[in-house]
Design a protein that fits this description.
Elements (H helix, E strand, L loop, with lengths): L4 H16 L7 H35 L25 E2 L6 E4 L5 E5 L7 E8 L5 E9 L5 E5 L13 E10 L9 E9 L11 H14 L4 H13 L15 E2 L4 E5 L1
Parallel strand pairs: 2-8, 6-9
Antiparallel strand pairs: 1-3, 3-6, 4-5, 4-7, 5-10, 7-8
Length: 258
Amino acid sequence: MNCEIPDLLSHMKFIDTLTELNLSWFSKRFVRFTALGLSVFLGVLCCSSVEVAAAEEDQVRQGLPGRRISGASRLPTSTCAQNASPLVAIVPETNLGETAVAEPILWVSVPKVVSAKQLEFYLFNNQDEIIYQTNLTVEPTANLVGIDLGAMADAPKLEINQRYRWAASIVCNPDNRSENISVEGWVDRVEASSSEDSRLWYDHLGVLLEQLQRYPHSQDVLSQWQTLMASARLERLVPLPEDVSSVESTPTTVGATN
C-alpha cells in the first residue's frame, strides 16, 4: 500500500459521499466524523506499511556485518604481494550468498603473493562458534582460490535452513598477526527446487568458474561472469583469470582442525 496524495483524495471523496446520504438513523455530522476517523486510520496504516517496507529494504541493502574486501589499512605490502590488489571474498554486496549444496566451494580472489603464503580459513555456526578451521597454501601463480569444503578433511556439511559465517586471512608476516589480510562472507544453506535457481550464488559462481576453465574463450561464459561480478559490484576488483592454472578449486591443505 502506498501512502500518496491520490489515496488521501479518494478518502475525502468517500467522506463527501457518505455525508450526502440521507440516512435517518445517522446524522450527517456523525457520518462525517466516522468517515474522517476511518481515513486517518487508513492513512496511518498506509504510512506504517511503507515504513516497515523501507526498514526491510535498508536491512537488505546494508547486508550482514563483515569485510568482504580487505581495507586500505590491510592492503598487501611489498613483503607480501607483488601488487596492490586486495583479498576479496567473492560474495554478493550484502555479504550473503545462498547454496543448495551441503559442501560448497567458497571463493576468494587473492593478490599475487611474492612467495607461497599461508591462508587461514574459519567457519562459524549461527551462534558464532568456530566449527571448522584449516590452513591452506596460496601459490604465487594463484588468482582465484576455491575453499572446497567437500575436499577438506573432516569439514562439516552445511545444514538446510542454517546460516554460516566464514573468514579467510592471508598470513603476510607470521611474527606480526596485525599484518594479516582478512575478509569475511556469509552463506545460507537452502533447499532449492532447481540447480539453476538464480538465488544460489555459490552454486552459480562454481558453475561459471568451471565453464571458464573449460571454455576460456567463450564470449557467452565471459559475459555471464562479468554480469555476475557487476551484480556484486566486484567487476573492477575480481578480474578474469589470466589462465586456467590461476584458478585453484582444491588448494593444498596444510592442516585442519575442527
